[in-house]
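SEQUENCE-TO-STRUCTURE ENTRY
===========================
Question of interest: how does this chain fold, as expressed in backbone structure tokens?
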Amino acid sequence: MSDNNIDQHHIWHPYSAMNSELPVYPVESANGVRLKLTDGRELIDGMASWWCVIHGYNHPEMNAALEQQLHKMSHVMFGGLTHEPAIELTRQLIDITPAPLQTVFFSDSGSVSVEVAMKMAIQYWHAKGQSQRQRFISLRSGYHGDTFGAMSVCDPITGMHSLFKDILPEQIFVEQPRCRFGQPCQPEDLAPLEHALKKHSEHTAALIMEPIVQGAGGMWFYSAEYLQKARELCDRYGVLLILDEIATGFGRTGKLFACEHADIAPDIMCVGKALTGGYLTLAATLTTDHVAATIDQGEPGVFMHGPTFMANPLASTAASTSIRLLLNSDWQQNISRIQSGLETGLAPCRELKQVKEVRVLGAIGVVEMQQAVNMQTIAPAFVDAGVWVRPFGKLVYLMPPFIINDDDLNTLTAAVVKVVKHHKV
């Protein structure tokens, strides 16, 4: 049986059906910002493989660090044992995240890091004798992952999980903030959140939010002042604040972490995706000494989670190397360069009748269409144009690797303009 038949008839791809008519393109290799297909074509990657490959593919320093670690050990259990890659990565994360975050729990994926954050919040309140606090407040149009706890705090409509609504925990949702990034936040913008906190705080463990950028739920950029006020409201009503920085962390928005736009710190923070530069799957949930100590002092006296591959040495090495590469670069100026290129390159889309809006923040460019795109035609059109872009719903968006040069960025945005201009729903 050919590779194509195996893939088509036996492999499930993300959010797809078996025997799907949507095209799947075999990749032979990847280098820099280019994906080389098995038919010889090369595509400029506009997605950084779902936002994580910030240093590009096949990076020599990343490769060398992993090869060196591989000769020492690829894995060792983290129960009762520890190792230098995890210690070094923890040191780095504590150094670069907001100061109150001092303890780190490692897991295998962003979705699981959200599960861990939710369990931390519930166990924190249980330790304080308030075990009724088991619900979460979340923003509509938010996205936090595909596992069951994470699904429960995704938007109940756009979260793609309506099939499971009857068995998911019932959470509290408030309207998406409509105050845009760079604009002030008005009292009416905050009213739904304050109402929910006032009404439900006695039964709420935490408010969970994607700071500044709502990602897969709609690629919406909201006011930093809203995030500031949300922090104040959580303090006023005695609710923990969880910030999901999985998509926004490590420079993507122009700040190292998106919460820095609002100059606030959460009680719990989730990071993933770009954490390892896209080399291996790894995530982390950070929290304060206070939250950790409270959990330790309650019953059963330990935090109740422990993945088999927790703090995997190879993944930890990839992460610490990726962070070092980022911090040793002029990443802020680089993100500003990419933002300028996205703004200029995508601007012609604003004149197209099929486009509702174009918005750019940091190394994120979004073209929101009037109607949902036709994936059967738009995906091949991008490949034919020599780029890899994977739209969803009404959104054609770019999150390229940070190493993309101006010529490749111009090619990428020009392809988006061309394909969007001729796309028929």
